[in-house]
Amino acid sequence: MELKRLKEQMEPGHLACAGCGAALAMKLATKALGEKLRVVIPASCWSIIVGRHPDTTLKVPVIHSTFEVAPSIAAGIRAALDALGQKEVTVMVWAGDGSTYDIGFASLSAAAERDEDIIYVCYDNEAYMNTGIQRSSSTPYGAWTTTTPYGKRKHKKEIIEVMKAHRIPYIATATVAYPEDMIRKFKKAKEIRGFRFILVLSPCCPGWGIKESETVLISRLAVESGLFPLLEIEKGKLSITHQPSFIPVKDYIAPQKRFAALTEKDVREIEELVRQRWERLRREEA
Known about the structure:
- By secondary structure, this protein is of the alpha/beta class.
- The chain has helices spanning 21-33, 45-49, 70-83, 97-103, 105-114, 159-164, 179-191, 205-208, 215-224, 249-253, 264-285, and strands at residues 37-42, 62-65, 90-96, 119-124, 170-175, 196-201, 231-234, 237-240.
- It has a single domain, classed as 3-Layer(aba) Sandwich (Rossmann fold), CATH 3.40.50.970.
- The chain has an eight-stranded mixed beta sheet, with helices on both faces.
């Protein structure tokens, strides 16, 4: 697939930090979904990045919402478009991990249970970055945030397992380090009806303590270490879409200042989590 053949739906001049993983992710996602698209953005970094009407960075219509209700608003837009006979238009929620894992989870779960015909994307930067780097339930074990100054002592919520329990038609994970994999998954999601959930790992340079030039590298290390499996679940059937090389977890952790307080014991605990997760994934894929 040649990415250059896909039409840009995102203008230059947005308000993201240099190297923002979430900005790169939106660029790829909107390329895949095309111009017949409506986007709902709850409170998050992207509430700022997109800019103010009428000078937003996206070429498609955008509606902002509070943390709690983005899936409900998207469901209403979907119903209105269907009533107008515009069934070919895609409705996408573009939410951070704070809205997805925590504050907006009730409406996310309800929309998934109803099988609303929307695509829900969580761009996961693993903390409340827009409000000052506070921990969320997506923040990984051992990571520094302003509310976990000595490192978070709980493991990250398994949101993919949570969404599997809703028995929705399509679930996928993606990262900008593997753009063709990401584009393919968004294009597939576009053609499926019902509730679709895509989790995109989105490194935050200031929040993770990495260089602006390292966003793609860190994304790739997350995948190759096994910490962020690339997968899709279609009608309950799991497929691994990229087999990692299982580089040492340290290779992923070392460049990130947020993990500076991790001990050798902590690293071994994370490695054990990776081992257990992949044992489970291989059983499910078999």
